[in-house]
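REVIEWER CHECKLIST
Item 1: Sequence provided? yes
Item 2: Single chain? yes
Item 3: Sequence as submitted:
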Amino acid sequence: MPMHPLWQVKQILLPASLVKLLRLWDSIGLPHEERKQVYGLELPIIGFDIDPNLMRARMSDDSRERLIQALLDFAQKGTRRSLRDFKRLAGWMNWALNIYPLLRPGLSALYAKTAGKLESRAKIWVNRDVVPDGIFFFKSISWDFTHLPEDVLKVYTDASGEGMAYWFPSSNLGFQSPLPGDAPTGTIFFFEALAVTAAILDAAHRLPPDGRIAVFTDNLNTVSMFNSLAALPPYNWLLMVSVDAIIESQLDFRVFYVPGVDNVVADHLSRWRNSAAETTVPGLSICSFLPPRNTLGADKK
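Item 4: Structure as written out by the authors:
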């Protein structure tokens, strides 16, 4: 391969096409640096390995292992870290979201613990909210409502003051459950989100890898929570459980809003009006389900 004349003394070998480009830049007086003349099947860009031919970006094994170790070292329950340490780790995790966007819920507890705090040296407890969120971060949408591919598994969900339900139209299979007694009180939002989580966990067992799930709910807050992957700490575990299942099963998912008038079957089931549901969709099979529980703990200091 021909060499760039300025670098011959160093015996640096470069591809012929790159040498031609560098010579062109020399001829027009455009400055360039040796360290930036990278080439190969993968290119290092902002710390990621980018394959322009496969249109793929990934973290190197070394980068991923260093971040995982930093998370494990940080997430020690009962210890105290400075606000500066919290923000440094949050920035590192935020950088990783460029490659792992589904892991955004893993930042919720960090942001909640640091919100409103200004003293960089102030010590903050690492509690049971921070520990599972940090470990979750590495324990593990290109289609829309009006153009759903035929292979997308659709499921409709709903919750009422009496229960929760979800329904798979393709198999005409419905599920219902009473409201759990240990849930936050005073809002239907939690139960709407819990119904979506239960539906995602069920759907994940019904699809092969690379399958897709479209969840429909008539609660706009739930749609926003799942599509932004951002929630307040009491609800964040629902996102974490859902994303864990999605990553483990290698699936893609979206949550869509549907008006209540178009969510009749799930509404009937959530209110235990089974006869009305069977009248709406003859041949409906109805089963019970146990909603997922928060096993992450919620002790705070």
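Item 5: Key structural point noted by reviewer: Residues 3 and 9 are 10 Å apart (CA to CA).
Item 6: Recommendation: ____
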